[in-house]
Amino acid sequence: MTVKNSSIKDSPIAVLGAGSWGTALAIALAKNGQVVHLWDRVQPLLADISAIRQNARYLPDVPLPDNIVICNTLALALEQVKDILLVVPSHGFAEALQSVKPFLTPAHRIAWGTKGLEPETGHFLNQVAERELGAGRPYAVISGPSFAKEVAIGLPTAVTVASINQKFADELAVRFSQDSFSVYTTDDIIGVQLGGVVKNVLAVAVGISDGVQFGANARAALITRGLNEMMRLGEVLGARRETLMGLAGCGDVILTCTDNQSRNRRFGLALAEGLTEAEALNQIGQVVEAVYNVGQLCGLAKREQIELPIVEQVFRIMKQGVSPREALKVLFKRAPERESLTN
């Protein structure tokens, strides 16, 4: 489908959540000629951003383009807006939808850059959106291998937009697409969301392995077998293999597992040093989605009666106090099995 730029880019877009990823996406949109309404529930953060025209807490030394409008209230952020982009932690996703709901008209469309599941239920976020806002409203998720700082400073990035509404997916792609930001679209919303969840736990596993100095061979094995676990779970949940082997699956796994910009990888490194979960979180100082995701994935595996050995061992380390070195040794002592895409 061909979308005329003027048909969508002339209207402002609201970005709700001024953390590192929300601010980076706002900058990317603004650099592509969009007027962006940026809002966050933390008013002191908004005041600081407005005063110096940069997010010194999360993205220091990255100036905000002039066409990012800092909005002090949610009502102002949603004025004259058709598309709303939520970029909040997964544990705050339902609350964010509830806050937005009183302002919505039938014309509003919802997208999110949140990666995770609902902590209390383990539901995918599209299920949460349908529960909170009702079925029928267009929604989309943006995911893929993308560190906030690199997006904010304009380094080349490619992501996937998933929506069952092709028109919405195409128009979001137009809003974002530029020389340094490529967008691919799909209707496999489960596959795109699943990749953004599993990669968090795999990054913790690889961080632990690197932290105990198990070496490059072990890192490669964990990434490869981790992808296999993601494919196995995706198959029973209805995700497509091409999605999981694409940007939002394999791409995000590789990025998150191999670079220390990843909070989840750094969390794994901290656990390998002997820090507790609470101590590791305090050291990082930001949300680490794997803390929620590991138990959720174990619950999905139990429900679907499949094995996720890497996820299970990360759970034992994080939640049961098992030694990182001993838990990883269990993985590498597994009985011989035939390698395939689903074993």
Description:
The protein is α/β, with parallel strands linked by helices and 343 residues long. It folds into two domains: 5-187, Rossmann fold, CATH 3.40.50.720; 194-332, Orthogonal Bundle (N-(1-d-carboxylethyl)-l-norvaline Dehydrogenase, domain 2), CATH 1.10.1040.10. Helix content is 52%, strand content 10%. The chain has helices at 5-9, 20-31, 43-52, 74-77, 93-100, 125-133, 148-152, 166-176, 189-211, 215-237, 241-244, 247-258, 263-272, 277-284, 290-304, 309-320, 324-332; strands at residues 13-16, 36-39, 68-70, 83-86, 109-112, 139-143, 157-162, 181-186. It has an eight-stranded mixed β-sheet, sandwiched between helices. β2, α3 and β3 (68-70) form a beta-alpha-beta unit. The model is unreliable at 1-6 (pLDDT under 50).
Short description:
With 343 residues, this protein is of the alpha/beta class. It has helices at residues 5-9, 20-31, 43-52, 74-77, 93-100, 125-133, 148-152, 166-176, 189-211, 215-237, 241-244, 247-258, 263-272, 277-284, 290-304, 309-320, 324-332, and strands spanning 13-16, 36-39, 68-70, 83-86, 109-112, 139-143, 157-162, 181-186. It folds into two domains: 5-187, NAD(P)-binding Rossmann-like Domain (Rossmann fold); 194-332, N-(1-d-carboxylethyl)-l-norvaline Dehydrogenase, domain 2 (Orthogonal Bundle), CATH 1.10.1040.10.
Tell how many strands the DSSP assignment holds: 8
Question: How are the strands of the largest sheet arranged?
Answer: 3-2-1-4-5-6-7-8
N-to-C CA distance: 38 Å
Q: Determine the mean pLDDT.
A: 94
Largest sheet, if any? 8 strands, mixed
Strand content bin: 5-15%
Counted by DSSP, the helix tally is 17
Strand and helix order:
HEHEHEHEHEHEHEHEHHHHHHHHH
CATH class of the largest domain: Alpha Beta
Query: How many structural domains can be distinguished in the coordinates?
Result: 2
How much helix is in the residues?
A: 40-55%
This entry's quaternary arrangement is single chain
Give the CATH architecture of the largest domain: 3-Layer(aba) Sandwich
CATH superfamily of the largest domain: NAD(P)-binding Rossmann-like Domain
Q: Based on helices, strands and strand pairing, what is the structural class?
A: alpha/beta
Do you know the CATH topology of the largest domain?
Rossmann fold
**Overall body shape:** globular
Return Rg in Å.
20 Å
Low-confidence stretches: 1-6
